[in-house]
Every structure is written in C-alpha cells, then in structure tokens.
Design a protein that fits this description.
The chain is α/β, with parallel strands linked by helices. The protein has helices at about 1-15, 25-30, 40-45, 45-50, 55-60, 60-65, 70-85, 90-100, 115-120, 195-210, 225-230, 260-275; strands at about 20-25, 105-110, 125-130, 130-140, 150, 155-160, 165, 180, 210-215, 235-240, 255. It has a 6-stranded parallel sheet with strand order 3-2-1-9-10-11, with helices on both faces. Strands 5-4-8 form a 3-stranded antiparallel sheet, covered by helices on one side. Strands 6-7 form a two-stranded antiparallel ribbon.
Length: about 280
C-alpha cells in the first residue's frame, strides 16, 4: 500500500512546476530533535522542569524571562545548543534535489524555529518561519523593533537544573533582558518584522508558480497552523505524517503514514526509477 502512495506522490511532483514545503516539528525528528508532543514528551526531554511541574506553555512564554530568566534561558539555551550541533537528515537534501528540477524551485513555510532548512542549504529568501527563529534575539520589552543574531552567545548550562550559568544575554540598546526572537505563548512583544518580510517573499514566489504541489512534513494537530496553510492552498497536497496522516474529504492529493526521511527517500527512489519526464538524483 505504501508503495502505491509513494507512486501517487511522485506523479503529483512530476506534474508540478514548484514545490511548497510546509514543515512542522516532525520534520526534525529524524535528525534527532524532540517534537515535545504533549507534556509527557516535553518533560521527558526536560526532567528538571517536570520536577517543578513546569509545562511547555509556561516556559515558552515571555513571562518566564521576567519571572526566572536563568531557567527560561536554561531551556532556550539548551535548545539553541542542540540546534547548532544537529545535522539535518537526508530528507532535506532530497527536497533540494527535487526542487532543482522545477522551473520555480521550492519555498519553505515552517513553524520550526530550529534553522535546519538554512543549515541544510535552503536560502533564507525562500523560507518563511511563521514563529520566528531561535538563532535571532530581541529585547524583552522590546525597546526597539529590531532583532540581532544569537551567534555572539555561547550557552553554558546547568542541565541538571535546566539553568543558564553566567551572565544573562542583554539587549545592547537598553540593557534589558534579551530573549529569542520566537513567537511564544501569550506573546504581545514578539518582533515579527523579519517573518513578515519572509511572508512577502512567499507571496511573490506564489504569484509566479502556476502548478505548485505542497509537500507537508510532520505537521501536528494540537496547533495546526502548518496543516491549515497546506490545506488552504487548494492545490495537490502530499501529507507525510506517521501519526496524523488523515486528509479532508475534499482535498486533492495523497497522505503517507511514514516519517519524513523514510517517505522522502521512497519518493526519491520512485522518481529515479520511474519513466517520468524529469531526471532525478
């Protein structure tokens, strides 16, 4: 059955002139990243927060940086260090290879803040990070609507207690606490200008593509932003998700109940072995 689904996906890709890649947390699982599915999954990754009864919505919150900045930066600093050392899995390269055969290439829309698409070689001009990026910082207030690179900070952590060790990152303009430029829960202070610029790039790309296909990877249902973006394009959709592959009855496309890397490897093999028009690597 999976072979038939992968064949259908390959044919949808071959009929397209551009790929919209929509990606949720499940895209990074094959690279070794946690997806924080439910409190149990989150607490397994951060036992110190579990011991204190702190859930994801409490720590992924601007108030956490005011209430306990060492703990908030312990959580986000750990994630920043993890993302920096993580190597994107083979599926990212497969997507690039497929997109390189398309007249309009690919554009990425993702809820992930890990920067893995940029690390894999996708241009920042072809990525829309709807929740921002952990690789950029902003003022907690914010005193100015600007962001700056997180490259200048090196996380030093007490992982047992999930705490930042040393001086907390500060805003260079006003001296207030700095925070990641990530859209958090109950977040009225997020500086979203860079994401808005990325969204405009997507709109320009979208206006040029005549026969796009959406490849959706690991998009969750608890906060279904990515799934909604995929579905509202009203174009053929390839939904890849090992747990929630269901599609709306009226949707055109195919759902594949597999992990991102395995499904993409299968699609690449099908494209390479097929008699379709393009030549795939």
């Amino acid at each position: 059955m999976q072979a038939s689904l992968i064949n259908q996906a390959a044919r949808l890709i071959d009929n397209a002139d551009g790929i919209l890649i929509t990606a949720g947390a499940g895209m990074g699982v094959d690279s070794g990243l946690p997806d924080f599915r439910g409190n149990d999954g989150f607490w397994k990754a951060y036992p110190a927060l579990a011991a204190s009864g702190i859930d994801f919505t409490s720590i992924a919150n601007p108030r956490a940086f005011l209430k306990n900045p060492k703990q908030a930066w312990g959580f986000y600093g750990h994630r920043l260090a993890l993302y920096r050392k993580t190597i994107p899995h083979e599926g990212f390269g497969i997507l690039q290879s497929i997109a390189s055969k398309m007249p309009h290439g690919a554009f990425v829309v993702t809820s992930n803040v890990d920067g893995q698409f940029q690390k894999a070689g996708f241009s920042d001009d072809a990525i829309f990070e709807i929740h921002g990026s952990l690789h950029s910082l902003q003022c907690i207030r914010p005193c100015q609507h600007r962001i700056w690179s997180a490259n200048g900070i090196e996380p030093v952590l007490d992982e047992v207690h999930c705490e930042w060790v040393g001086e907390i990152p500060m805003c260079p303009d006003c001296g207030s606490i700095a925070r990641p430029n990530v859209l958090m829960f109950n977040d009225a202070s997020w500086v979203g200008e860079h994401s808005y610029h990325q969204e405009r790039n997507w709109q320009v790309w979208n206006s040029r593509v005549k026969k796009p296909v959406v490849i959706e990877l690991g998009a969750g249902i608890d906060i279904p932003s990515i799934r909604l973006i995929s579905e509202t394009q009203r174009v053929p959709l390839i939904r890849i998700n090992p747990r929630h592959d269901e599609m709306d009855d009226g949707s055109e496309g195919v759902s594949i109940p597999m992990g991102a890397k395995s499904a993409l490897m299968g699609i690449a093999k099908e494209l390479g072995n097929s008699s379709l028009d393009r030549v795939y690597i």
